[in-house]
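Protein in question quoted in full.
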Amino acid sequence: MSEKKVKVKAPAYIRHQRITAIWFLLPNIVGFVILNVYPLFRAGVLSFTNWDGFNKNDFVGFSNYVKLFQDSTFLISLGNTLLYTVATVPLAVFFGILMALLMNVKFRSIKIFRTIYFLPQVTSMIAIGLVWSLILANNGPVNQFLMWLGVHNPPKWISSTQWALVSVEIVSVWRSMGYNAIILLAGLQGVNTELYEAAKLDGANSWQRFIHITLPGISPTIFFVLVTQMISSCKVFDIIMAMTQGGPGRATNVLAYFVYQKSFTEYKFGYACSAAFILFGIIMLFTLIQFIGQKKWVNY
């Protein structure tokens, strides 16, 4: 005889909790759909048109995507975005870990130092860009210091095609490592201290404890920082706008700035939407690769 599955009805208080949870989540869900899902869907539709923001809105199929890969400015922007991401993500995470280790040291004024390290994150990116543009100017403090050290031809940091992207990467790493350090500090403080005591009793030195206890213990936090830093780097815009406006030439023209130029300067919104969707696809691909790879090194 086959046993019949009897559906057990959830108690009234559990149903009430579920309904309450839905009501609390509803405003956020509605906001997410209106501000994220619908614009994404709308941009996807517009990427197949030649919409100019006003009247022109003809369906052109995949011609925008074909034109993009024949557009030298787009290809340069794509390369700059990849170079920027490859350079900033490892450095921002590495220095974030170092700063988190320093901030995890207990002494009287540590809270003041944690606040100072985090200040760049809450400072306007436009203000940071303007200040760093003055610092890295040809006759700015950095080059004055280098000349004092004996460097007769210091780099033209933001006015040369060779150094402009490097300059932006330096500023971006400087700004983001404080935020990363705060997140990683939370991970450090969640590691079981008994593991360190047991390792000391077994004769493990500081480096061995860091490799075999600290890094595995904060690996989920490192993974979170890697993913968020990668997404932020791929869609970088504000620091480019503040410091270089994509120049000199096209040396710092990244995909997000390319989308801005095509849409709000040249009024090629359909073309810009196709570039934005390619950027979206790149971010999704990188994120997927990270989620697949994290199974081999993240310890939950």
User: Anything to note?
Assistant: The CA atoms of residues 147 and 170 lie 20 Å apart. The two ends are 44 Å apart (CA to CA). DSSP finds twelve helices and no strands in the chain.
